[in-house]
## 1
Amino acid sequence: MRRILRLLAQLLLPPFLGGCLFLLPSAAADGITYTLSKSRWLLMWAYVLGIGPSLAYAFIMDWSYRKRAPAHTWRAVWLSSLLGALAGAAIGAVAVIGMMPYSAEGHLLTARVYLGALYLGGMGALVGFALGVGVKVFATVWSSGND
């Protein structure tokens, strides 16, 4: 896969895919038209919160492709999943802390931070896996000359 396309995909796709994955239960429950009407704000916040981890993810994966795990290997896919989980957990913790005002009940805030990190960490692992498989498929196709 061409490096600039891969970097752009790894930078711009994770917040979009994570936002879409986050909206899936809402679309099933409320209907697609209502979900689409509120999705632009969620996607905006997904990019605001996710551009930093996506930038780190893109640079770590680019380094990994050059040094440790070529893009067409499963090792790169699993590294992508791990980085996605870490990025999702960080975004979840930051989002929960930012949305919750500090209260005297610190243990409730701590539990919510852990739950937010666990929930978005799982979504991040799914997004990282999907992106890793996509890069693997395109790297395999383009390296074999079948483009």
Note: The radius of gyration is 17 Å.
## 2
Amino acid sequence: MSEMDDPREGSEFEPGQGMRRDERRARRAGGPRQAGRLAAGRGEPRRAGRPGRGAAGRSGRIDPTEMVAACFDRDLTFAGGEEQIDSAFAWLRELRRRSRGWKTARRQIQLFLDQQNCPPEHARQEMIRARKYLKPWLPTQPRRRRREAVADRAPD
């Protein structure tokens, strides 16, 4: 087969045509034949956890302080701008996914505001604002863990 007959050469080449599976993987991973060994395009070994999830994927935990901090603007106003509203919504989804209620959210907000040396009156106002945004959509009672539920059903 000459160079002109090679499907990978010339203008008629379509992605995936004439390539082996490992070559396609390598192309997606951003390097030659390193798809399985290296993380996509970063040149570092893969770590445990879901790919593309950063530190959260490796440890299975998202740092709540970072999520709460993203919900506040420079003036420590909860959901003060578009980006902060998006962050508050992402944090709400995370709280709901983990079946956490308003108590947990309130505690995390208070901890963040205390770390930022926020005046008590401003902290109260922001807590009221956050409550308006979050509490109606958070569970009132956290779900029981499976072990607790099974232990309650076991006969004595």
Note: The mean pLDDT is 74.
## 3
Amino acid sequence: MYAASLVFLLGAAASLYLGFRHGRLTFVFASIAASMLSMLFLGVSILRRRSVEALAPRQPFPSAPPEEETPVAHDVPEDTPGTA
């Protein structure tokens, strides 16, 4: 739908240019009609997107991860072999 809106908008710009360039009101009116169609398609696509998002189940916010305990350095007994 967004693409159709863009196509109509480009068509409106082109017909407006031709209308001003050649001095024909037919192109100017065609430009107005194409821009209105572009707005219609854009509005429909926005409303469709909002309705799809409204129907989608909402997921709760993720909770904060549990805080990890910092490792505590244990005292090494002095009579352990291999320590100086």
Note: The mean pLDDT is 81.
